[in-house]
Amino acid sequence: MSALELTDAVKRYGNRTALDRVSLSLAAGECLGLLGPNGAGKTTALRLLLGFSRATSGRVRVRGLEPGDPASRRSLGYLPERLVFPGRASPERLLRFHAALCQIETSRVGLVVEAALEQVGLTGRGRDRVEELSKGLRQRLGFALALLGQPELLLLDEPTSGLDPIGIRDARGWIEAARERGCAVLISSHGLSEVERVCDRVAILHEGRMRAEGALEDVTRPGESLEDAFVRAVRG
Amino acid sequence: MSAFGALAGEAVRDASRRRIVAMVVAMSLLSLFFIDGCTSCASGTININGEERSLGDVAGATGGALYGFLGLWIVLLAGVLAADHLRQSLEDGSADLSLARPISRDAFALSRLVGSLAVALGTGAVLLGATAFLLGERSALPLGPAFVSALGVFAGAVTLGAFGMAFSLWLPRLAAILAVAAGLGIVVLANTLTFFREESANDLLGWIDRLGPPLATAIWLPLDKWIPQAQFDGDPVAVGVRAVIWAAVAVGLLLLSFRRLELGR
Questions:
Q1: Contact (Cβ atoms closer than 8 angstroms) between residue A50 and residue A78
Q2: Which pTM was predicted?
Q3: How many domains in chain B?
Q4: Distance from the B94 Cα atom to the nearest Cα atom in chain A, whole angstroms
C-alpha cells in the first residue's frame, strides 16, 4: 500500500485549474521532493492530501484511505509553510495538546513530549512562550509537532524556512532518521539544493501540470544539476 | 484527555483571550452594580395610575424584565462571539495544524462552538445567577422560573451561536455579525408583538413567532410566574421542544457547512 497516491487528480477553482491530471505516489521510506514555481500547484496537492480541499476529479488516497477520513491522518505529520501558534502557549503545552489530538496514551505523553523537545533542540525552552521564540526556534517547534508520535507519513511544506545552516543540517538529520524507520516523506520546497540532498525522487509541477517526475538521475541529464533540470522543465 | 476535550479546552482558552472578552467582563461588573441597585429598593412605594403600590408588588415585573433583558444579552453575546471564533482560526491558519490531526471536522467545529459558548454562558451564569439570587433574597421571588428561563437562554445561545458560526463560513465577518444581530432582533420583535396581539397573526412576524426559534419566548415565558399582572399565552413544553429542535437544526447546519467547506487556497 502506498503512503500516498494521487491518480489523475484535478482541482479547479472556478475557471482556474490549479491541478491538472496530476499523478503521484510515495512508498514507505521514500522521500519525494515536490518542486515548482509559485502557483504551480504544490500547496494545492498538499491540501488535497490533508483533506482540506476535495479533488474536482481523480483519485486521492492517504495510506489507502480517502483524505476526508480522519483515520487517514492517524499517522501523519504536517509542517505547514506558515506556522501559526497561539503566542502565549508554551512549546510543551502545544506538544501536549497535539499529543492528545494524536490520541497518544496519557501515560506516555510526558515522555513523548520530552523526547520531541530534545530531538529538535528545544530542551530547556519547553516552558517559554512561543512568542518569545525566534523564527528558527519556532520552525524547530513545527518540526517537533510534525514528528510527534513517529508518523508514517510526513508532509513538509518549505521545511527549512527560517532555519540557520545548523538548523538546516539538523532538519536533514530528522528527515533521514524518519526515513530510516520507514516513514514516507513528501517535501514541497523551493530549496533545490536541499531537495537534491535529501530526496531520492522529485516531481516538478508547473501551472498545475506534472512536467517531470522520477528519480533524481532520471530527471536530470548527464552533467546537469537539478536547477538546470527544473528550469528546463518549467520553461520548456 | 480525549481529542475533543483537548480541542474544546484550547477553544475556550482561545475565546477567553479575545479582546471583546475584557469588554464583556467590564460590562458584566457594571451590570452587577446595576442589578444590585435595581433589586435593593423592594421596601419603597410607587404610584401607578394614581394607586400607591409597594415596590415589592412590582418586583416581579421589574425583575422579570431585567432577567429577560440579560438573558437576551447573553444570547446575543453567544451569537457575536461564535460568528468570529471558527472563522478567525481558519483565516489566521491556526486551524491547519489541528485539522491535520486525526480529528473530524465535526469535532473541530463543535469545539469552537463550545469555546465561544463557554465564554458567553459563563458570563450568563454570573449575571443571571446574581440577578436571580438577589431577586430571591430581596423580593422573595421563586428561583424555579429563573432556572427554566436560564435553560431558554442556553438553548437560544446554542441556536444563535451555531447559526452565527455557520453564517461566518459564507459571509464576511461584519456581515455575519450583523446577520446574527438582525436575526435576533427580528425574532425578538416577532415574539414581543405576540404578547400584545389578541389573536395570533398570519403575517410574517406571526409565522416567525409560531415556527421560528423561540429565542425570546423561551426566556420570557417561564418568568410569567413572577408577574401575576400578566399571563403570557403559550405552552411551555411546546416552546421548549421548539427551542431544542431549532438548536439541533442550527448545529446541524453548522456541521454540514463546515464539512463541505474548502479550507484555504
A1: yes
A2: 0.91
A3: 1
A4: 5
